[in-house]
């Protein structure tokens, strides 16, 4: 089969479309013909050697795949063959990928493979930063950074659905419009404006109860300054570089909480199942809009990475298999 691999870390040009051995599903696993492989910001960080740097090379990227089950491994019911599914998996920038049968989420016909690819890494992250860690409640105001991104657009909608007000940050007018379209009440152009000053003015000087921060270095101080007393900053990404070290003393004046979220934190299976099923049900009911901002053939992963790390994408980026 063909897959996207890199043999050394570096820029998008290290990604090569090449022949690799076909994977074989092991016990408890299925083989998927990949129709849509999700691209995530962390893939660009892995490729640059900034994250997961100990993984052996050459390496196939990809943490999620939507497709059709083409074979089952030992101990797996053959009824899965032919079903449309999505799963968190490894090495999904490929024509075929293995997935654990316990990870499979079956797709109803009205959900496309590309939409489904947005529901796991990005959907689960949005769900857990809003609900599990942030515990967002009706009546609160939440600052969502990178609000037009893959996680961002979903987080905006989940915060709104919880009954809270959203202030989103974005670069560029097109991103501002999209974030508003999915429900953001106010937008701050963090490429042009002083974020903390604008947030304080939008909240009559009070600040926000929650900040969802995936940008890190360049937003950190504004995030802290924009928080209301007893507010909480949920850090879940470093798109602009790692945030500074946090001095606990600096949190006292406003009695602030700083929390983190990582998708790989061991999570009770029933919590994860509930989150996946809730996200899928919301998409089916058309209450949660998945914006697929860019889809390219698998072979063009280099272009997808270039655009994603160049801040030139909105919503979900997917690589399409031929299946
Ligand atoms: N903790 C976890 O388990 C977890 C899971 C999934 C994702 N994440 C993190 O969540 C964030 C969003 O992931 P995503 O896949 O949905 O990506 P994304 O938000 O679609 O893309 C990243 C966005 O970050 C913004 N950004 C701000 N400064 C940037 C910079 N210096 N370089 C590049 N982008 C910058 C850009 O939006 P603007 O142009 O509007 O600034 C860009 O579009 C990433 O930091 C990712 O690592 C964490």
TrEMBL record:
The entry's keywords: NADP, Oxidoreductase
Superkingdom, taxonomy of origin: Bacteria
GO molecular function: mRNA 3'-UTR AU-rich region binding; NADPH binding; quinone reductase (NADPH) activity; zinc ion binding
Stored InterPro entries: ADH-like_C, ADH-like_N, ER, GroES-like_sf, NAD(P)-bd_dom_sf, QOR-like, Quin_OxRdtase/zeta-crystal_CS
Gene Ontology CC: cytosol
Keyword ATP-binding (UniProt): no
SMART domains associated with the record: PKS_ER
Start and end residues of each Enoyl reductase (ER) domain: 10-319
UniProt keyword Membrane, yes or no: no
Protein name (Swiss-Prot/TrEMBL): Quinone oxidoreductase
């Amino acid at each position: 089969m063909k897959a996207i691999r890199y043999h050394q870390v570096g820029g998008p040009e290290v990604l090569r479309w090449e022949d690799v051995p076909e994977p074989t599903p092991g016990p408890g696993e299925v083989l998927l013909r990949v129709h849509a492989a999700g691209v995530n910001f962390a893939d660009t960080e892995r490729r640059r050697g900034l994250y997961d740097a100990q993984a052996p090379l050459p390496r196939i990227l990809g943490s999620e795949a939507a497709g059709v089950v083409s074979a089952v491994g030992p101990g797996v019911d053959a009824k899965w063959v032919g079903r449309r599914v999505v799963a968190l998996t490894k090495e999904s920038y490929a024509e075929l990928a293995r997935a654990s049968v316990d990870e499979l989420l079956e797709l109803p016909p009205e959900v496309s493979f590309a939409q489904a690819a947005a529901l796991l890494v990005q959907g689960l992250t949005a769900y857990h930063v809003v609900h599990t860690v942030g515990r967002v409640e009706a009546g609160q105001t939440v600052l969502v950074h990178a609000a037009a991104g893959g996680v961002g657009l979903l987080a905006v909608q989940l915060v709104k659905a919880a009954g809270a007000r959203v202030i989103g940050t974005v670069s560029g007018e097109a991103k501002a419009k999209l974030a508003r379209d999915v429900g953001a009440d106010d937008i701050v152009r963090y490429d042009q404006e002083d974020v903390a000053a604008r947030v304080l003015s939008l909240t009559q000087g009070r600040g926000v109860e929650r900040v969802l921060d995936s940008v890190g270095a360049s937003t950190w101080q504004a995030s802290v300054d924009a928080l209301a007393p007893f507010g909480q900053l949920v850090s879940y990404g470093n798109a602009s570089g790692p945030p500074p070290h946090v001095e606990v003393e600096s949190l006292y004046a406003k009695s602030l909480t700083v929390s983190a979220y990582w998708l790989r934190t061991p999570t009770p299976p029933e919590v994860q199942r509930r989150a996946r099923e809730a996200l899928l049900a919301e998409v089916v009911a058309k209450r949660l809009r998945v914006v697929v901002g860019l889809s390219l053939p698998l072979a063009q992963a280099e272009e997808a990475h270039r655009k994603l790390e160049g801040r030139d994408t909105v919503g979900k980026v997917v690589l399409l298999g031929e299946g």
